[in-house]
Amino acid sequence: MALNSGLGGQLSIDLGALARNWRALDKVSAGALTAAVVKADAYGTGIDMASKALHAAGARFFFTATPDEGMAVRAAVPDAHIFVLDGLYPGAANLYVRQNLMPVISSLAMLEEWLAKCVERNEAYPSAFHFDTGMNRLGFRLNEAVRVKERIEPLGYAPQMVMSHLACADQPSHEKNRTQFALFGSIVAQFPGVPASLANSAGLMTGRDYHFQMVRPGIALYGGRAVSGRKNPMAPVATLHVPVLQVTEARTGESVGYGAAYVLSRNSRLAILGYGYADGFLRSLSSTNRRPGGKVMIRGQLCPIVGRISMDLTIVDVTDLGDNLPSPGEGAEVLGPNVLLDDQADAGDTIGYELLTSLKGRYNRNYVGDGKLPS
């Protein structure tokens, strides 16, 4: 394809696909509220536009990692209910109150600071409580539940929600899922009448038992694979084309790229792309003679990356295109319907999450559709 501007790459975000993905997940989670996780700039798609599209599709509850992200959602969607997964940053309670952000409280120190603000203002500001059921990341320890209850009950305070996070939901048969489910059930029982949330994208797809009162899809909204070993049912959201700068010839036995890690076994034609690791194309997608790397689509055919990806450039073998060679300024598809996010991630021994959240490069960003769908 020819790039519209001919200058730099073009990242296209399909807001209609994003909205369709949310609505599809909302149908699966019928009976529970379906939130939208928009942290990390909405997984690289743009938190402002993504939040608006998700809200237009029906989402009302949003999860961010930081209060700055929460403020970005508040500006985009004024009536959103916003949870901040990193919790309450020390000394920042006034900011959360002003912006109507709900911290996901995960320690006794956080809880004390939040309750102090509630007492000071004589207002039960909402929050969620996060309990660690097996990740050993953020979260109250299970044995702290009694202390938490003893602290809030005299004040008449109750959280908006109790939550935890699954460590192995992408592997539905993993024993840890059942262990965490049972441990979380013991926590939920100690907070009767308080809504609960356990399921991320993979947990949502694993089974209704994991849904509780709210599900929190992230990667699936953006077209990524949530469950290992299953066909991904979600529509691609991000499509990235980058420009061909030059097509050159190289001989058998010559090396390609830094470190001479790839040596040609045939006379070859190479396309040099204006895209590198500074643009989010991970070096793990490089190739050597011992290990294949990623691929891109040029003129309807998948072409392999050869040699190391450098800061600004990537080299692709286009020999098999014959005389159907690309011209300078023509676009190569790096992500999209022909080069699936998770296939590219697999080639780089990583996950779709990392590729998406790395989309901060030197390219033009284009939004397609507005996310509004008929009921």
From TrEMBL:
E.C. number: 5.1.1.1
Active site: 39 (proton acceptor), 258 (proton acceptor)
Annotated residues for binding of substrate: 137, 311
Keyword vocabulary terms for this entry: Isomerase, Pyridoxal phosphate
GO biological process: D-alanine biosynthetic process
Enzyme class name: isomerase
Any single GO CC term annotated in Swiss-Prot or TrEMBL for this entry: cytosol
Cofactor(s) this protein cannot do without: pyridoxal 5'-phosphate
GO molecular function: alanine racemase activity; pyridoxal phosphate binding
Pathway the protein takes part in: Amino-acid biosynthesis; D-alanine biosynthesis; D-alanine from L-alanine: step 1/1
Gene3D superfamilies named in the record: Alanine racemase (3.20.20.10), Lyase, Ornithine Decarboxylase, Chain A, domain 1 (2.40.37.10)
Every Alanine racemase C-terminal domain range: 237-368
Similarity-based family: Belongs to the alanine racemase family.
Protein name: Alanine racemase
